[in-house]
Specification:
5-stranded mixed sheet, 5-stranded parallel sheet, 14 helices, single chain, Rossmann fold, 12 strands
């Protein structure tokens, strides 16, 4: 994975302080250790699931589902997987009914994921599915040790797995939360972690990623009031759900009160997919208010060689320039053209992430890159990156409403 940055920052003292803070943070924040974990217990667990199980279904929301979904949807188009993976992550009744119509309950294993063990959305869905299929062997529960969910699972003799200590939901994709469903589908979780480890080692051991991430984070922090909207413009449909994961990670981590002031700060994430969003949101970036930065993501090798055929269409002869062009080359030419147009504007900060190919290692690198970037920016804009009091406030009000329903 490469990151080309087209803007500069000169705050060396600030960058060094941020690096030292993140280095120290490894002692208390659990996600930093995930690339180095022993995955043998996870592999052993997956082997206990009967071969007759054809489908894995995650019942969870937010950090309990978005990361695994991002990886699964990235890998699924280019790899023949052992099982299909579904996500029950909404209380939309039509969505629940539609998903249930697509699976065979008797041949599905459900992963019920809730860090707190009391997530309302998760358990409203679980209660409904359990009313249709009450075999405890069809469920595995993933939660914090000692949570109400663990107590419930033990009471019905169902399997329970734990989240690692001090790993928040939106940083949990490389833990049991993401690795279990992905491994059960045949995704190479070892390669996923190896990709994350490459970024970790490069950053903490003064490799290429150290200056790259520090420069980018320092720039975002320095101009966070001017360029307070960060657009991730990914040129592949397979990255759609990665963009959704990024939106949660960025928004929930960085939209806060500052720790040492009364100011509200935050960076607004927007996920875009090229080339289709060239025909919608690009106009706003190009000629709208100068409050947006843009990161492009390109894939060099799509693992697909389909080519535009050598066909001439009457009255459309000018489009013969497309003939013989591989689609993967066309989509990257579209990306490069938009980047060049924005660079010509000179007041829109952009950078590009280049992914060599569609595989687990590169997705692992991309995930850990964004987790590190989030932590660095949070440190530099002086917020607690790992809490979410705004989300908790809404949960409290909902619980009060449910008592009076």
């Amino acid at each position: 994975m490469k990151n080309r940055i087209f803007f500069t920052t000169d705050s060396e003292k600030t960058k060094r302080a941020a690096f030292e803070a993140i280095k120290a943070e490894q002692e208390t924040i659990g996600y930093y250790a995930l690339p180095d974990q022993n995955i043998e217990p996870i592999i052993s667990y997956t082997e206990t699931i009967p071969k007759t199980v054809e489908t894995i279904a995650v019942i969870g929301i937010g950090g309990s589902s978005l990361g695994a979904k991002a990886v699964y949807e990235f890998i699924k188009p280019v790899k023949k997987l052992q099982r299909k993976l579904y996500f029950f992550e909404s209380t939309d009744p039509i969505n629940i009914t539609t998903l249930l119509s697509e699976i065979d309950l008797e041949n599905t294993h459900f992963l019920v994921i809730s860090k707190s063990g009391t997530t309302i959305e998760t358990f409203s869905i679980y209660k409904y599915i359990y009313s249709l299929h009450s075999d405890p062997n069809a469920y595995t529960f993933i939660t914090d040790p000692g949570s109400p969910l663990e107590q419930y699972a033990r009471s019905i003799d169902a399997s329970v797995l734990h989240l690692p200590e001090n790993v928040g939901g939106r940083f949990s994709v490389l833990s049991t939360v993401g690795l279990i469903p992905l491994a059960l589908c045949g995704i190479d979780i070892k390669a996923l972690l190896e990709g994350a480890k490459m970024i970790k080692e490069s950053f903490f051991n003064a490799g290429y990623m150290q200056n790259t991430l520090l420069n980018k984070a320092a720039y975002y922090a320095k101009y966070h009031t001017q360029y307070h909207i960060n657009c991730l413009f990914a040129y592949s449909e397979s990255l759609k759900y990665f963009c959704e994961w990024y939106v949660q990670l960025w928004g929930e981590s960085l939209g806060k009160h500052q720790r040492h002031s009364a100011f509200h700060v935050g960076l607004t994430p927007i996920g875009l997919i090229g080339p289709k969003d060239q025909h919608s949101f690009l106009q706003l970036i190009m000629e709208g208010t100068r409050d947006k930065s843009v990161t492009f993501i390109k894939i060099e090798d799509f693992n697909d060689t389909i080519t535009i055929p050598d066909v001439t269409l009457l009255h459309l002869e000018s489009l013969d320039t497309l003939n013989g062009l591989p689609f993967e080359k066309l989509i990257n030419m579209q990306c490069d053209s938009v980047m060049e147009a924005l660079l010509n504007e000179k007041d829109i900060p952009i950078d590009a992430i280049i992914i060599p190919k569609t595989d687990e290692a590169n997705m692992g690198s991309l995930i850990f890159y964004y987790e590190l970037l989030t932590s660095l920016v949070g440190e530099l804009i002086d917020v607690n990156t790992y809490d979410q009091p705004g989300v908790e406030a809404g949960k409290i009000i909902l619980k009060q409403k449910l008592k009076g329903k």
